Amino acid sequence: MDGSRPRWTAVAVTPSAGGEEIRLDDGCGGGGRYPYAWLRNNCRCSSCASGETGFRKQVIRDFQFRPVPDRFEIISDDVLYVKWDDSHVSTYDLQWLLERNFNEGQERREYQQIKWTAESFSTMLRSFKYENVIKSDEVLLQWLETLAIYGISIIKSCGLEHDRIKELAARVAFLKRTHYGKTFRVEAKDDATNLAYRSTYLQLHTDLPYYEYTPGVILLHCIIQPESSGGENEVTDGLFVCERLKEINPNRYKALSTIPVRWIDHGHDNGYNFHNIHHAPVIW
C-alpha cells in the first residue's frame, strides 16, 4: 500500500446514546461513524439498490431493523466490506461513506443565515457577473451560497435580452408557473389590477403569498431604468424583522406566526381572470 495514503481501520462500538455502529479511522484524525441499521439500509449491491438510479429496492416490511455484522474489514485500501448475520454481503466505497458520516456537526453542510440591516447592507451585498455565473460552476456555487446566507445578491452585465432570466434559472432548477406565467414583464399598464403594474409607489411586500408553494427565489431583471424619478428598489431582511419583533413583542410575534389570515389575489392578466385565496399566518 502507498505509504502516503491513509491506513484505514474499522472498529465496532456501542455509543452512549445506544445502538451499535462501525467507526472508521484513517489514523490521522479523520473518519466517520455509521450505525449498523443505516449501513444495512444503504447497501449498494444490485439486490438492494438500482444501479441506474441509486434508488433502494429493499421492501421496508422485510427489513431487519437490528442487523448485526458477522464480519467486516477494509479491503483494497478504500472499500468497507461487511458480511451480515443473514449472510448478506455489502461493500461501501470509503469516499462515499465519508461524504455521509454521522460525526457530530458533519452530518450535512448547512449555511448559517446572516441577518442584515440598512446600516450593514452596503458591506453585505455581493455582486456577480452574469457571464461568470452562467459559465463557471465555482461562481455559480458562490452565488447560491450568497443567496442561502444573505437572501439577496445582484447579478450585473445581464444584457437586455428578455430570456436572460430563463437562462439563469436553468442553471439552478426550474421556473415556477403562476397565473402571471413563468416570466412576466412588470411595466405600467392603464388597466392593471396589480399594484406592481402601476406607476405609484409600491411599499415593502412579500411576493405571491397567496400560493401554498411560494417560489424560493425571485429573479428581477431590470431592462429599462427611467430617467425620471421612480423605479428604485426597496428591500429589507425578513429574518431580521421577525427576530427583532420576537424580542421586543413576543405576543405579537406569536399572533402573526400562528393565526392564519387570508391572502388574496384576484384580477386579470395574460388574457384571463384569476382569483387566488390561501390561508396562512403572516410569518410562516
From TrEMBL:
Residues 124-281 form the TauD/TfdA-like domain. It comes from the Eukaryota. GO terms for cellular component: mitochondrion. Residues 32-97 form the Gamma-butyrobetaine hydroxylase-like N-terminal domain. Pathway: Amine and polyamine biosynthesis; carnitine biosynthesis. Keywords: Carnitine biosynthesis, Dioxygenase, Iron, Metal-binding, Oxidoreductase. Its cofactor is Fe(2+). GO terms for molecular function: 2-oxoglutarate-dependent dioxygenase activity; metal ion binding. One of its GO terms (biological process) is carnitine biosynthetic process. Belongs to the gamma-BBH/TMLD family. This is Gamma-butyrobetaine dioxygenase. It comes from Sipha flava. The lineage of its organism: Eukaryota, Metazoa, Ecdysozoa, Arthropoda, Hexapoda. The gene is Bbox1.
